[in-house]
Design brief:
With 291 residues, the chain is α/β, with parallel strands linked by helices. The chain has 2 domains: 126 residues, Conserved hypothetical protein from pyrococcus furiosus pfu- 392566-001, ParB domain (Alpha-Beta Complex), CATH 3.90.1530; 106 residues, no CATH class. It has 11 helices and 9 strands. It has a 5-stranded mixed β-sheet with strand order 1-5-3-4-2. A two-stranded antiparallel sheet has the order 6-7. Helix 5 crosses helix 6. The chain starts with 6 loop residues before the first strand and ends in a 6-residue tail after the last helix.
Length: 291
Amino acid sequence: MAPQRIVQIPVASLAEPALAARTGMDEDGLVSLAQSIRELGLIEPLIVKPADDGLYEIIAGHRRFKALQLLNAPHADCIVRKDLDSHEAVKVHENIEREELSPVDEAQYYGRLFEQLGRDTENVASKVKRRRDHVEDRLLLLAGDADVLAALRDGKITLAVAREMNRITDKGERLYYLEYAIRGGCSSKMAREWRDQANARTELLARRPAAEPTAGTLAPGVPAPAAVGSQYAFHATPAELSSSQEIRSCFFCEKKSEEWRMYRKYVCSPCADEHLAPEAEKRLRLGVVPS
């Protein structure tokens, strides 16, 4: 491929992208980029296309353009592209392959293209030269829970965790696990386990009479995990909840119940000797042995 000709175009003649790939830019990052350009020059030229009124619309290099504006630079090195069909693909390559675009920005960019191109995923995938399943994966972020999207945008959870959170069918369960993931951290494997447990409990509840008691609330109008019928759910962690239907006996009252309505606790050896062993000995003396 022949080298592309670089031309100098007045910064005042450059126009921002009509459909920007990113929704916002970090101000500190722009200042740092401007300082780098001041010291080293513009290493990578902008890619532009002819627009109306003698202007040139930026296809790739939006951040560099903003940094040049901060520097009051008179000109910018540019490569002019006229092959219209490749513009969106160039924009995606420039922003995603260089790891400058977050999954949320990518999703929102695809979402805007999705609306422009007649709500056709295949058209979007063809336009940006990405696999259809990749585009669909990002669009699903937009269709998912807004709180999950916000947590991903703010870097509080990973993309893999966001996917699993959106697969939790009950909103109350989803918000509960999302809050716990944000506060305590969460791996993709852990998120999958939480999703399986939450959806199993939701399915169990759906098969039970509506009159059965439900859990307390995490916040007004937001149900706590449906695993139990007590306010203790407010304090329980995901590791303490189960989706098993196996019958267990309560350590304290011996009443039998399905495991999904109970809690799992971990006790260190000294505390077990001090608190649990005497209780167990008492029960043995009374002839009460949990099954």
